[in-house]
Amino acid sequence: MLLCWGPYGILAFYAAVENANLVSPKLRMMAPILAKTSPTFNVFLYALGNENYRGGIWQFLTGEKIDVPQIENKSK
């Protein structure tokens, strides 16, 4: 979240205290685009980090079920 919204926040703060026209228009455009695509990045990060989600996507795409090894409960 910080990686996506950080540049936008910095640019907004800079615009509040200084003249934002000193920053190039391309840079002013990239910060909001990066921030607003954050939900897309979150989906991919969640998919890579969650084993059950990856297995479900794999089953949906290929029809094969991935057997997830059972982890013993060691807190007993």
Automatic annotation (TrEMBL):
Keywords: Membrane, Receptor, Transmembrane, Transmembrane helix. It comes from the Eukaryota. SUPFAM superfamilies: Family A G protein-coupled receptor-like. The keyword Metal-binding does not apply. One of its GO terms (cellular component) is membrane. It is found in: Membrane. Residues 1-46 form the G-protein coupled receptors family 1 profile domain. The keyword Membrane applies. Its main location: membrane. This is Retinal G protein coupled receptor a. The lineage of its organism: Eukaryota, Metazoa, Chordata, Craniata, Vertebrata.
